[in-house]
Amino acid sequence: MTALPLPYLVNLAGLILGVVFGAMVQRSNFCTMGAISDMVLMNDANRLRSWVLAIAVAMLGSQLLQLAGLIDLNSSIYAGTNLGWLGAAIGGLLFGFGMVQAGGCGSRTLVRLGAGNLKSLLVVLMIGIAGYATLRGLIGPARLWLEGWSVIDLKSRGFATQTLPDLLGLGFGLDVRSLRWGLGLAIPALLLLWVFRDARFRRHPVLIAAGIVIGLVIVGGWAATGILGADEFEPTPLVSMTFVAPIGYALQYLMTFTGATLDFGVSTVGGVILGAFLMAKADGSFRIESFANAQDVVSHLLGGVLMGIGGVTALGCTVGQGLTGVSTLALGSFVALGGIVIGGILGVRYLEEGNLPDAIRALFARG
What we know:
By secondary structure, the protein is mainly alpha-helical. The protein has one domain (6-366). The chain has helices at residues 6-28, 32-42, 46-67, 85-102, 106-114, 119-136, 140-150, 164-172, 176-196, 199-202, 205-228, 244-256, 264-283, 294-313, 320-325, 331-353, 356-366, and strands spanning 82-83, 152-153. The longest helix has 24 residues, at 205-228.
């Protein structure tokens, strides 16, 4: 019996991780946009704590893999020496605002599609088209122009990566490995302390399980591409879960079968939809849902476009930067995450106020 070629094994791992991710998000209603809106509108931090728990687990597991020498997070796209701080900030703002208009981020949109929400089909198409246009198409030159004058070349300043251990190590003359141990343990510990100090959250086992499982899926992605995909002659690029660019590649693959490669990212997109479908069927939550009115169509269309543009400009989404990127301790990922959160809060205020100027005033007045 012939063993599966290495690329097929990596893709299979991506499919399985996607199924687990999609099923857990569907079961728990894990959602970054929902977490932000719950906190802003109802002062309910339960879903926010679940999201932070996922960050803590992803960061701890990823850093332990790095320290054990099993993967090299410094070779990931997030840790590069070109610090695109402005692209991360602007892209994060656009993505955060867009996810509120679309009723969920990229991963949540895939989950909703798997559970029968036809509105999410339009959002997925818009994310894919706008994302690909920003990556390689009509909007690409504007993105490259922004990068050209705002990117900071850290390599020319003596830094090896943009990760916090390297930046602080060189900046203060400290040992990088010791700093990685310290930050890789201390930051997750502080996050876990904040997460579990609330007794109300401790009474939500589904949200706790969601945070742990989704965090482990991020770690599993690094292991799938960095350990399983390690090949001396043709290594798999080191990536984990992210959805904006892979949605674009998945659409291209479905249309041509030759213009894009069936890789880890494309496999995770299919896995998330499949996992959400299976869970929705299992728990009876599968429902065919459509648009309520024309304004509903416009909101979802706009949200998808903004997420596609913003996600590519920021190099990731709430999962790609907010979980996967942050797990590498890359500075740009923290900037993008901050932009997404602020954009999400602004989006919620926009829905409240009905116009952008009042939403901006409400953002600064109430936070």
